[in-house]
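Trying the structure run again after the queue cleared.
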Amino acid sequence: MKSPTKSKLQLHLAFLERLEKIIQDIKGESREEKFAKKVFLRLYRKGAVDLDDYDLEDEEIE
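Done. Tokens:
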């Protein structure tokens, strides 16, 4: 049995990464939303964001 070539493995990896993005989008949270949450939390931890300025009744902060 022949071993897969590097280009085939890269193609499979690209397919799996795309599939992961599609699944995340279906779940309702895109990469951009996750990134925005990370940035917001970093700013909050540094004291640059005051939570009193935001209506967070429907949102959860991890």
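Helices lie at 6-27, 31-45. Worth checking whether this holds up in the mutant runs.
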